[in-house]
Amino acid sequence: MPLSARAALSLLTAAALTGCSTADGSPTAAEGKGPSASPTTRARPLTEAELRSLSLREADLPEVEPGRIAFEDRSDTSDAPSFKPASDPDCQTVHDIRYARAAPTVVRQVMTWKDGIFPGQVTLASYRGGVAERLFAELERAAGSCNTYRGDGRTGAYTSTMKTQKAPNAGDEAVQLREYSTVELGKRDELFIVVRTGSTIATYNSLEIGRVATFPTEPIIEQAERLRAAQDR
C-alpha cells in the first residue's frame, strides 16, 4: 500500500483504536435501529477462505478507484502500541465488536474512493454457535448508551460523539452509527454500518473531514445475501 494510503488509513483508525471514533447524525437521517432479528438456525461459521471469496469486488463498488481494493494483511499484534480504553466502557464495547476483536476468523478490506481522500474499510467476522447474535445484542445495547467519550489513539487524545441512525434493511439485523469530532483539519465524520447475517458480522466504515461520510447501500445488501447463501450450504 502506498505511503499516502497508509497515512490516510492511520487517520481512519486512529480514534477507533480505543473506544469508537467520530459522529453526529446527518440532517436527513432518522435515528433508530436496523431490521429486527429473525429466528436463526445457528448458521454455520465461515472459514477465512470463504469470507475472502465473498468479499466485495470492483464490480460491486464502481465508486472505488480501479485496482484499489485490497485485503489488509493480518499483522502480528504483539508489538502494536497500547492505548487507554475509552472513558465510557459502552463506547469501548462498540469499538471492540465492530472491529471484531473477539472474532476467531476475520477478513478486512481497504478501498480507495474515487472522490475521497480517506480509504474505506470492510471487516467480515465469523463466529461459532450463537456468539454473533449475542455480540450484536450487546452492540445494540452499548450503542444506545454511548454518547460523548474521551479516547486515546495514534494522533493523541480526542473527544468523540456517537449517535445511532436508521440502518439499511440488510441481513438479519443491522445498526448504523455516525461519529464525529473536531480535528485540526475540520469536522471529522465517520460512518459505521454493522450487519449481522447468521454467524457473520460485517462492518462497513467510511471517513470524511468537512463533509458527510457515506457507504453505498446496495453492495451491503447484496453481500449479506451472499453470506446467507454460503452459510446455508
Give an overview of the whole structure.
- This protein is an alpha+beta fold and 233 residues long.
- The chain is 25% helix and 31% strand.
- It has helices spanning 3-14, 48-53, 89-98, 131-145, 217-232, and strands at 64-71, 105-113, 120-126, 148-153, 156-165, 173-183, 186-197, 200-209.
- The chain has an eight-stranded antiparallel beta sheet with strand order 1-2-3-8-7-6-5-4.
- A hairpin with a 6-residue loop joins strand 2 (105-113) and strand 3 (120-126).
- Helix 3 crosses helix 4 (131-145).
- The chain is globular.
Architecture blueprint of SSEs:
Elements: H1 3-14, H2 48-53, E1 64-71, H3 89-98, E2 105-113, E3 120-126, H4 131-145, E4 148-153, E5 156-165, E6 173-183, E7 186-197, E8 200-209, H5 217-232
Antiparallel strand pairs: 1-2, 2-3, 3-8, 4-5, 5-6, 6-7, 7-8
The rounded Rg comes to 16 Å
Order of helices and strands: HHEHEEHEEEEEH
Helix content: 25-40%
Strand order of the largest sheet: 1-2-3-8-7-6-5-4
Q: What gross morphology would you assign?
A: globular
Mean pLDDT: 82
Number of strands: 8
Number of H/I helices: 5
The parts where pLDDT drops under 50 for at least 5 residues are 1-41
Major beta-sheet overview: 8 strands, antiparallel
